[in-house]
Amino acid sequence: MFIKKIIALFFFFNLTILHSQTKLTMPEYLKKGDTVGILATARKIDLATLQPGIKLLESWGLKVVIGKTIGKEQNQLAGADWQRATDFQEMIDNPIIKAIWAAKGGYGTVRIVDRINFENFKKKPKWVIGFSDVTVLHSHINNMNIGTLHAIMTISAKSATPEAIETFRKALFGEKLEYHIPNHAFNKPGKATGELVGGNLSVLYSIQGSESAVDMNGKILFLEDLDEYLYHIDRMMMNLKRNGSLKGLKGIIIGGMTSMNDNDIPWGHDSLQIIQDIVKDLNIPVAYNFPAGHIKDNRTLILGKNVIFEVNSNETVLKFQ
């Protein structure tokens, strides 16, 4: 029995070391003259609405390819599942296209992710960009140890703040990206280094138990959400707590919790209070009101990349290594 325990410990520690040494791959950063593909993985959208985003890319010296899903519709969606999957597949397999920018979110990306063959993508990854429903792709791709950009979508270009747009440009072109965010009263101080993962809380909750579920162990988790009932926030956070996802985290970053709803009989706490109560026993740094999510000041995060995360009495610092 003693020998069996020694052997088990040996394999455990070796697997732990192997996991910690897993090499993270970042797609090639863009340069002037490169091509970005714009498509819809979920909700339908027309070409006219995307013009500000197209002009933004062109102002940076980039070329644009418009996906076949733009202008298509099947009820709420930008075409049938096979059409959206085919559009995405063609773009990740096209060597000319260096980045894929989601036109819009909504719901529907989870319906196509299992139709995609990522074998060529893993050999030659490219940036996949967006937020909200695109969290499905972030998590699925981050599980391949490949980075993605949690950033504004094409439809957001018209309303995004200059800061959000500039951080998107910096991330695309590989310029230094770090944040110094004012302190929030709920913040828990501390410092951690680790891989940044996460995205939309509702989407992360919905893909728990699937192939796309992100491994949170040893990671720094970013969360944001929109238009949810407050008790839903409590239910989703309790799920992450009870299934053990929060236990191995090195840190938590809470972004925009926007336009939340309540019942006629109030839940009694706002979204940040709900999260604060659920994570209060974790001995890790936690930062609130980070400028990312369903807000105009949606600053870019490089998911899958290692970061230095520090929360002190004055500010939250996030540096991408």
From TrEMBL:
Keywords: Carboxypeptidase, Hydrolase, Protease, Serine protease. GO terms for molecular function: carboxypeptidase activity; serine-type peptidase activity. Residues 36-151 form the LD-carboxypeptidase N-terminal domain. Residues 193-307 form the LD-carboxypeptidase C-terminal domain. One of its GO terms (biological process) is proteolysis. The active site is at residues 132, 224, 294. The keyword Protease applies. CDD domains: Peptidase_S66 (cd07025). InterPro entries: Carboxypeptidase_A_C_sf, Class_I_gatase-like, LdcA_N, Peptidase_S66_N, Peptidase_S66C, S66_fam. It comes from the Bacteria. The keyword Protease applies. PANTHER family: MURAMOYLTETRAPEPTIDE CARBOXYPEPTIDASE, MUREIN TETRAPEPTIDE CARBOXYPEPTIDASE. Belongs to the peptidase S66 family. This is LD-carboxypeptidase.
